[in-house]
Amino acid sequence: GAVVSQHPSRVICKSGTSVKIECRSLDFQATTMFWYRQFPKQSLMLMATSNEGSKATYEQGVEKDKFLINHASLTLSTLTVTSAHPEDSSFYICSARPGDRNSYEQYFGPGTRLTVT
Amino acid sequence: GENVEQHPSTLSVQEGDSAVIKCTYSDSASNYFPWYKQELGKGPQLIIDIRSNVGEKKDQRIAVTLNKTAKHFSLHITETQPEDSAVYFCAASRVGYSTLTFGKGTMLLVSP
To answer: Which of A2, A58, A70, A114 could disulfide-pair with A48, CB 3.0 to 4.6 Å?
Structure first.
């Protein structure tokens, strides 16, 4: 149980284009999903927290107009990187927290490797 | 805000030896401490977690201990195997605040 999927696993796009990454909780409902960014040999950096049906909360320094997050259902959140540039190249990982208010756990997806050329 | 320090940054052991990774946290209100294992090119996998109402938790070869007074917690892996080689992250969170604060990670290398 507690499986989170991401699609695509890898994407290469040209500078100036937009890329959408999907995050799905496969066997549980997630009222809260998180998006992280990870650079090589570094820890996970939280970008934003999204709650189903409401606007995402972005961490300081993360451009909300550049990284659009939608959490339209209890099992799906999407991250759209708009007007991507080479510096946006990174490993993007989502996580999902089960809907039980007493739940603390976060389960992570397998990640999406974005390369902007 | 919460700050989590993790040591060591790298750890090399021989197969069969034990490995210990230590973390300290700053927010005394934190009450949930998970450990994640991340293999190269993959997402983190939750391997064990502990809540502040217990001092120790064990799952086969993996155990986690928590010292609330000292604000530190540790991951213990016994009888290490080459497949234990990965980066391990500790994290902390507190009631009513769902985000996790991560340590910087420990690269564990188990040599056959």
So the answer is: A58
